[in-house]
Task: structure prediction
Amino acid sequence: MSGEGVCRAGPSLALIKYWGKTVKGDNLPATPSLAVTLDGVHTETSASLDDEDSVTVGGVRQGAARYSGFFDVLRATLGTSARFRAQSANSFPTSAGLASSSSGFAALAGACARAAGCDPSPADLSAIARAGSASAARSVFGGFVLLPAGAHRARPVFGHEHWPELRIVVAITRPGPKPVSSRRAMEETRAGSPYYFSWVKETTALLPGAMQGLERRDLELLGETARRSYTLMHAAILGAQPPILYWLPATVAVIHACAELRSTGIGAWETIDAGPQVKVLCLEQDVAAVVDRIDSLGFGIQTILCRPGPGLRYLEARS
Result:
């Protein structure tokens, strides 16, 4: 079998968070999310035709059940009966709260489509990727991307060139996998947290302000709205039974460091996904001050500098 495709995708960092699925099924998001696709970290996936579906990530064979729904949607959308053997690698820690599933399923969708000899639209690729991970619907596109509540596909809002000065400092407080997967934590939050439905209502109300801050390139407005989003999300998660707490002492230290930086006039606005890692929004002129402050905290925190990046990129298949 000769078909092969290689695709690279950046993870999608949600500024207004997606957390929770609709009761309708089909992996549809219960809340809208506004995100930026990162350049500086990526997933690269190669796919070839085979007799059965298989996926390895970092050399580790993945459970078939996690990917079966994705492959079903992919085949139905592309109109193919092909099976795929995929190999994926991340340039950043996997399953650690750094949105590796978003870049992973987006790259997988692109690589498999190319291996099957198909050329679906970005919108169709977004819908395919969403079947594996709702946030992956956003990673198909570059720049700033919106995934509405209940939507099958994301849509681009602004290209990656919209805000040339924007930077994202990723503070890795612990590189290992997080103890509770996002998928499981979402289910337990919806089932057991008394704050879940308040979260769904409040996060919808945050979106207009975030869109306004992004359009105006107003870091304070966008940053404050993003901070409100992640704190509400983690409050809902902490309300699950049993409670789920992703933060570590290093996580809390970075939160306080960002507040101290803002008090001195340096724009440093943190956001946190389901995990202990912190991502800090800042302008290029303030990167050195942000990194220096994080480094001074100790804890062995590693930092990666990112910026808004492009969408899916297709690479030449290696011989």
Observations:
- The chain has a mean pLDDT of 95.
- The chain is about 40% helix and 25% strand.
- The longest strand covers residues 43-50.
